[in-house]
Amino acid sequence: MAERGGRKLPRRWIVGAATVSLAGIATAAFGATRVHEGGGADASPGRSPSGPVPTTPAVDLMKPVRARIEAFVDRYDGHLAVAALDRQGTATVTAGDTRFQTASIVKVNILAALLLRQTPPGKALGSETRRLAEAMIVSSDNDAAVALWQKIDRSRGLTAANRTLGLRETKPNQHWGMTTTTAADQLRLLTALTSAKGPLTPQDRSFVMGLMKKVIPEQRWGVTVAREPGNTSVYVKNGWDTADVDGGRWIVNSIGRIVEDRHDWLIAVLSDHHVSQEAGIKVVEKAATFVLKEMRAATAGDGPAQE
Fold first, then answer.
1. Is residue 125 helix, strand or coil?
2. How far apart are alpha carbons 203 and 235 in whole angstroms?
3. At 206, phi and psi to the nearest 5?
4. pLDDT digits (tens, 9 = 90+) for 152-199
5. CA 286 to CA 290: how far, in whole Å?
6. Strand partners, 85
7. CB 299 within 8 A of CB 218
8. How far is CA 137 from the centre of its chain?
9. Which helix or strand (DSSP H or E) is residue 249 part of?
10. How far apart are alpha carbons 291 and 80 in whole angstroms?
């Protein structure tokens, strides 16, 4: 916000619908099907089967999930968008393509841009810059954000960083909190911040996630409520502000990560047009809980994922 005041799974997911590039990594979007990997124990090398090999039509298990999530989002008439993926598989859903003002979720983007400017890559931030970065993420300090915004050369620097991060639908604004983005692009950002194939070093990825895990208790609402009971492996950055162009109604956004035994969820929920911050938080939390409940159910038969 610009707030005021070689892995092998027991059952393999194969892409069954459109794909979306997240920070240069192709991931499944809107659906998947499962098939068993081929090869019978009694197959003889060099011999062809005597007849057609029987096949079972693939079932798109994500199709009904996608439909239910899209219907949930559609009820908000363009004022809600969600995107989520499981880093332990390829189950991915995106619903809603509206561009929303970021409010303070852009602070994660600013931090990523700052780290990309380090020479050599992975060089530790100076003590004062590190203090500002921690304040900007952990307590959403606006003064710290302004200082680091200037340090990355404002919107010009964010635009350059986003080309590296693979963001395609984020438009920086001279006032950082009025930057606009989509749920899909926030998923690309989260992917870039967690993937070994992304542009950040392991040290930088750990630094960002470490700060998102330390966000102060009063700001740990949003996507974190979708975690399973007792789970503390959650990472979050929220944003909230009023929009003058919308009669002072509230923008409420939440992005984050939830790591579980069989899943490593990345999730973004963007929304606006709320009569109050509290009303917006309720919508965001309801959406995050609904999306992960649906996706967990759809992937329940996969068994434990392996690194």
1. coil
2. 17
3. -65, -35
4. 999 999 999 999 999 999 999 999 999 999 999 999 999 999 999 999
5. 6
6. 92, 266
7. no
8. 16
9. strand 249-259
10. 13
